[in-house]
Write a structure and sequence with these properties.
CATH superfamily of the largest domain: Malic enzyme, N-terminal domain
CATH topology of the largest domain: Rossmann fold
GO biological process, one term: malate metabolic process
Strand content: 5-15%
Cofactor: Mn(2+); Mg(2+)
Number of strands: 14
Helix content: 40-55%
Largest sheet: 7 strands, mixed
Family: Belongs to the malic enzymes family.
Shape: globular
CATH class of the largest domain: Alpha Beta
Protein name: Malic enzyme
GO molecular function: malate dehydrogenase (decarboxylating) (NAD+) activity; metal ion binding; NAD binding
Radius of gyration: 23 Å
Bound molecules: 1,4-dihydronicotinamide adenine dinucleotide, pyruvic acid, magnesium ion
Length: about 550
């Protein structure tokens, strides 16, 4: 049998004979005399906390997950706020950048362009074929805001699936992290003797599409119950392959749809607070996007429903949104535009190109400024002060990942708006005390959405992931705030409640799938809401330690 759980270029170097899951407990005498699970939990946590760098912590936790999956997830669930920045953004970004250097053992599947023509047989090598329910698939071409990391992108598929397991109780054996190796255009990696991927530039679009067609068909045959999450494809491919396959297979794109949903949710909560302070109606919000890639445009599309839910027409909603890319304001008269920018390109401006963000802000007078640009510190003091001068409670979301690419920090946002800011960021920032009051940053990251969206789609056995299911996940998240969280002006629930939130989102997603008639588990239709919620909770995997 061909083995593909190890990068294929190591074939013959390191053969894996069975599942990558931990082996059964060793026989009596092969462990210390007193190895109490409860005490070992404390020991593992102490070992983790003794590491000084984020990357060391990441490596330690990867080892722990491999050695003792139950222990890893127990600790993760009990310490979500501490673990997420390690297994996910920001540290997962550094782990991906150094993946070929820190690589220790096989995890996930690597499917290479060299496998074209035999992808199905490769997929069958996965040890738990019948269990497969959810796969996160990346081609590594735009990992967080870090660019084309090639096969090093495997870390993001693994990280997202760890959050599925911890955050939504997906059974670990049902998850398949996949990294497609279609080459990389990053020369640093091509020149690195330790690089784990194919040593050539990315293959042309035609060859990639042929590969993707075969891959998607093979996935649907080998794993008939699988939901696919596309992750961190470069913007052109993100839109292309979402459109190409979304009506054919159960799949969604996390960067376009998951991000859209999480930002809509935080925006709904922020806009209410902002409008309460300004006395202006919700329909009067004006949203400026700094960054017009897959994430920026995905969020802009989802935010259309913020306005249409308030009764505006599609045209009126679109007029509340402005895009900025690396060349400045996006408008028709500027000339040729990438396809994904056209819908939001302004028709009402035809003057000279405005490039400076401050000039764009004075022209647009936004109530909300959303950064998805991978440009660190783009929201400097004068931008923040201008937003505060325009709005009693400005909405500033600096959503680029990881932390060092964020458009501004929470500290700066608080300081330069005199604490009035309604803030969310893609990666976590610490809370701030301002004039004696504790202020909390929101984490506007799709990690709040995809676990519940995925769980709902899996339990409904959805044929497709419809826009209505994505919107339901977003509204579900917005509604999940408790009175206590609202009292602290939180835009997102506390991450410690992720299981409860995911269950609620999953229930809403199942209902939306039923309404759209894409559910195959039609027996769930007869359940009342409370029965459905109980059913969702009963399906969540829990570590048994
Ligand atoms: N918070 C979250 O949940 C998520 C955050 N992201 C983050 O969003 C960022 C962008 O992702 P994509 O849209 O896929 O990337 P992308 O590379 O396709 O888009 C970046 C956009 O920013 C614009 N840009 C770059 N430099 C600029 C500058 N100096 N001034 C103005 N605009 C500039 C580009 O023209 C492009 O429109 C990444 O950092 C990613 O990590 C992505 C998905 C989810
Ligand atoms: C969070 C995420 O999906 C990204 O930054 O790409
Ligand atoms: Mg992503």
């Amino acid at each position: 049998m061909t083995i593909v759980l190890t990068p294929y270029w190591q074939d013959g170097v390191q053969k894996l004979k069975s599942s990558p899951r931990p082996p059964p407990k060793p026989a009596h005498g092969l462990t210390p005399p007193v190895l109490d699970d409860d005490v070992h939990v404390t020991r593992c946590l102490a070992q983790l906390r003794s590491k000084t760098s984020g990357l060391e912590k990441y490596i330690y936790l990867s080892m722990l997950k491999h050695e003792n999956e139950e222990m890893f997830y127990k600790l993760c669930l009990e310490n979500m706020a501490e673990f997420t920045p390690i297994i996910y953004t920001p540290t997962v970004g550094e782990a991906c950048q150094k993946w070929s250097h820190i690589y220790r053992r096989p995890e996930g599947m690597y499917i290479s362009i060299k496998d074209k023509g035999k992808i199905m047989s490769v997929l069958k090598n996965w040890p738990k074929v019948n269990d497969a329910r959810i796969s996160v698939v990346t081609d590594g071409s735009r990992i967080l805001g870090l660019g084309d990391l090639g096969v090093n992108g495997m870390g993001i598929s693994i990280g997202k699936l760890s959050l599925y397991i911890a955050g939504a109780g997906i059974r670990p054996s049902s998850t398949i992290p996949i990294c497609l190796d279609l080459g990389t255009n990053t020369h640093k990696y091509l020149d690195d003797p330790l690089y784990l991927g194919a040593r050539h530039n990315r293959v042309p679009e035609k060859e990639m599409t042929e590969f993707m067609d075969e891959f998607m068909h093979a996935m649907s045959v080998v794993y008939p119950k699988l939901l696919i999450q596309f992750e961190d494809f470069s913007t052109d491919n993100a839109f292309r392959y979402l459109e190409r396959y979304r009506n054919q297979y159960p799949l969604f794109n996390d960067d376009i749809q998951g991000t859209g949903a999480v930002v809509l949710s935080g925006f709904l909560n922020a806009a209410k607070l902002s409008s309460a302070a300004s006395g202006q109606p919700l329909t009067s919000h004006r949203i400026l996007f700094f960054g017009a890639g897959s994430a920026g445009v995905g969020v802009a599309m989802q935010l259309m429903s913020f306005f249409t839910l308030q009764g505006l027409s599609e045209k009126e909603a679109r007029e509340r949104i402005w895009l900025v890319d690396s060349q400045g304001l996006v408008f028709d008269a500027r000339g040729k535009l990438a396809e994904h920018k056209k819908y939001f390109s302004r028709k009402d401006y035809s003057g000279p190109q405005i490039t400076d963000l401050l000039d764009i802000i004075s022209y647009v007078k936004p109530t909300a400024l959303l950064g998805l640009s991978t440009t660190p510190n783009a929201f400097g003091p004068s931008v923040l002060q201008t937003m505060a001068a325009l709005n009693p409670r400005p909405i500033i979301f600096s959503l680029s990942n990881p932390v060092h690419l964020s458009e501004c920090s929470f500290t700066d946002a608080v300081q330069h708006t005199n604490g009035t800011v309604l803030f969310a960021s893609g990666s976590p920032f610490p809370e701030q005390r301002h004039l004696g009051k504790m202020l909390y940053p929101g984490q506007g990251n799709n990690m709040y959405i995809f676990p519940g969206l995925g769980l709902g789609a899996i339990l409904a056995r959805a044929k497709q992931v419809t826009d209505s299911m994505v919107e339901a996940s977003s509204l579900g998240l917005a509604d999940a705030l408790t009175a206590d969280e609202r009292k602290d002006d939180l835009l997102y629930p506390r991450i410690e409640r992720i299981r409860e939130i995911s269950a609620f989102i999953a229930k809403e997603v199942i209902r939306a799938a039923q309404k759209a008639n894409v559910d195959r588990s039609t027996d769930l239709r007869a359940m009342s809401d409370s029965e459905l919620l109980a059913f969702v909770n009963s399906k969540m995997w829990n570590p048994t330690l």
